Structures
1.
Amino acid sequence: MKTAVIGYPYIGENRQWKRILENYWKGQLEKSSLEEQLKSLRLQYLQHQKSLGLDLLTVGDFTYYDRMLDLAVMFGMIPKRYETEEASLETYYAMARGSKNVVASEMTKWFNTNYHYIVPEYEGKPLQLTSNLFAKLVRETVETIGEVPRVTIIGPYTFQRLTKGISEAQRPAFLLQLIHVYGQLIHELEQLGVSTIQLEEPAFTSELTEDEIALAEQLYVQLTEIVQSDIFITTYFEGIPSLERILQFPVAGFGLDFVAGEKENIAALRHIDFPKDKTLAIGLVNGRDIWASNLAERTILIETIQKLTGAKELVLQTSCSLQHVPVTVSNETKLQPTLKNALAFADEKIKELILLKQYVFNHETPVKQAIAMNLDALERLQNHPERQKVTIQRAVQQLKQSDFERQAPYGQRLIAQKEALQLPDYPTTTIGSFPQSEAVRQNRLKWRKGEITNEQYEQFNQEETKRWIAIQEEIGLDVFVHGEFERTDMVEYFGEKLEGFAFTEKAWVVSYGSRCVKPPIIYGDVEWTQPMTVKETVYAQSLTNKRLKGMLTGPVTILNWSFVRNDLSRSDVAYQIAIALQQEVKALEAAGISIIQIDEPALKEGLPLRKSAQKAYVQSGIKAFKLTAATVKNETQIHTHMCYCEFNDFIEEIEALDADVISIETSRSHGELIEALKVNPYKLGIGLGVYDIHSPRVPTQQEIETILTESREVIAKDQFWINPDCGLKTRREEETIASLKQMVKAASILKQQVKA
Ligand code: GLN
Ligand code: ZN
């Protein structure tokens, strides 16, 4: 029995990896230094895993930006727009990030995680192995550590499934070439002594059709014919619906997820004969969350699996790559012990694996003690007063249907709001944030370091709000915002003010490329104790006669962008957050704010992989949102905002939120969205984003007019709003003002046309 990880976090405990990459991009680092520094980093990771006592060393989990992109470039899949045919590092980074003249490749969510990979594009050029990153990794490991590692590679089935641009006519030829390049790649590794290859096939956790399974089988039959090494198919993020079929593939072993996929995989194994001559890698320790495993319970699972499968050999591993968790809890100096002791990041998860293995072989005192300590830590957290807030738990349990509903249906509310708010037709607004300039960031930094007082900090932000109120007057917008200068992150801001949240110092995880996020931890019952946004909002409203929108982050987004306690269902946690936010909505309303926006950019991205689980997720998400807004008067207008996704197949769900108005990112799929709205007219207020805020480019008035004209075909006058795609905090002031002026000009033309 051996211990292993599917992958280790490559960013490093201090985000060293990110810094190296970014220094190189800024031109502060030569290519050779980049290579040197990255090499030393990844060898350090391997040494470290070895020193922790992990049996198997795995390479291939490291990347220069993204592992899907690594493979695409190795296979020569470089789209024509990048001009140079050869796979240089510049081309690689141009594909990843765009360059002066070329846009970057598309990025999308890696299964149900918050990580985004680069989507490989196939343009018909024959695949060819142009380089072999893995060979470099193996060579340096042998040289430095003196050990031949196993290599982990994203598998061919998943790779082809996530590649875009392969027509059905092209697919057979593409697949032949694909197997050929995988074969060649593995051959080169075999020449260096490699004998074990782990092919990651998370796509096997989807509900595959018979044809898709047959295709996958064919790929593995062909591949195993041309390579000598032991191939392991490793799956993660779910169980495998077609386990029985996949276990027949002619490979040396399988890795299954016994965390997210525990129920499904165990149930399947009860009635399938696991092939006795094959290795089973048990994904035992959760690679996705930050909580310590219940080790006693995990030991029972090992026994169950041993009995069920009688597998020749077992590997104990993490349920998926540890890329999705931070490096080590030991760097956290400020967490209270009760919480800290119940956490496990990558290194602690490796220690758990080792302990579990020791337990299987001996039940000696130190091992038993360690298991008992683990249980004790979990119990202490469970009994933490922050988890025993009876009133909050009871409030969730006692929720009834009517708690989720506004007083009157949309039609009546619309009339009441028209009367009360007196907005012009085709109102213009923004999404909430204005540029977080250098000065804004410096001010916050000084405050965090204690160099300025709270009053000074707030004073500065107020000035900035005042300045932007004047700018909004000058631009001529209809509904104003205060600008969100007091917020860095839309989740962190609320987490810091609500009870039940904890913040780490170094618990970073990659979101995409070198971009890292440090999600808060929801460890206790979520409670609202004081207004969080009222002061800033009321101040801003006092400066103008225009209506000013209050700005909140919604319950589902707070949930999806946090690490969440695992002793409650996610929907119960969402309801707790919703109840807390409802207090804030009430407080804003009581303070005279009559338009309140509750952002839910992460609602769609949280969709579970399985169709069968999607409905329950969407339903509870919708309920949580509605609960947040339910108590307000008919006259109070509730807005929401969504972005980061394509929404044309999500309109019904959005409508079900019953928000009076939604502003929605459209630039990625404007045409499709218009088409979808033609078929299913949207019943409430909606503002289709009229320009892309991700680019510094100022849109022309004409472009915006075109979008408005198209939108008018599908959105009625009473429901028509005009806004950019998303918040403007990453943009510069000049661009922002210039773009919004174009938007308002285009809007006024529309307003005149309609009057005439
Ligand atoms: N109100 C937020 C902002 O304007 C919304 C951000 C988002 O949708 N991601 O920044
Ligand atoms: Zn947005």
Note: Residues 482 and 540 are 5 Å apart (CA to CA).
2.
Amino acid sequence: MVLVSAKEMIEKAHEGHYAIGAFNINNMEWTKAILAACQQANSPVILQVSEGAAKYMCGFKQCADMVKNIHDHMGITVPVALHLDHGTFEGAKACIEAGFTSVMFDGSHYDFAENLEKSKEIIKLAHSQGVSVECEVGGIGGTEDGVTSNGELADPKECAEIASLGVDFLAAGIGNIHGVYPADWAGLNFERLSEIDAAVNGKPLVLHGGSGIPFDQVHKAITMGVSKINVNTDLQIVFAKATREYIEAGKDQQGKGFDPRKLLKPGADAIVAKVIEMVNQFGSADKA
Ligand code: 13P
């Protein structure tokens, strides 16, 4: 089966009150581990790539080819979409060309009129190729240069305007942030989520910064219209922890423990376990 657009799987999740995990990939190991986990859990999945990660992996075309080849080689049968995460205007166009089946255009740093105009153009182009589109209103906070900003709150009126363009799903800040949540984080703002959900007329919403949010808050957000949850940091943390334990136990110095196929295995296994846990929490297990 070929890669699919994310539209149908997210609409089904929205109707069925569960969410699709959108996991960021960084290399071949991440791709294999996430696909193996979702195949095992019988869950649809979105593999997503940031522009920085795409540069690291030698370009959008390489990402698309790698994901397709690994997907086919592993005989994956659950629905899989390949999505650009936080794309620029040019990046989104390049991904459509390179064979991605879904793109995010993040125009949240432009003034709203320009975000609206550029979102409209990407939606038109993407839909002409059967590619799904995510846009963003208001920005998502996070850690930059060691400083963690507070989660931002999107304006429901702006969300309604972008939703009316025909975007497939919409990212809107509800107090969520990328990276590790600070100890004094206030939690998701359900009042704002409810206002946004009412304003967008049934459009599925995207929760960025899905790592480290207590699952009771995640479950509540899903019942209120969130149908795609982005996860990056959690997989990086479990990979690093398992790899550190392997090295600290001296296993890289036993026999051929330094072989990368052995050295990277505990980290990859930890990603598989974390993804299975998350898709069960998101409710997408057995929904393929
Ligand atoms: P985390 O790294 O906090 O999981 O956020 C991922 C994300 O939202 C990617 O867009």
Note: The chain has a mean pLDDT of 96.
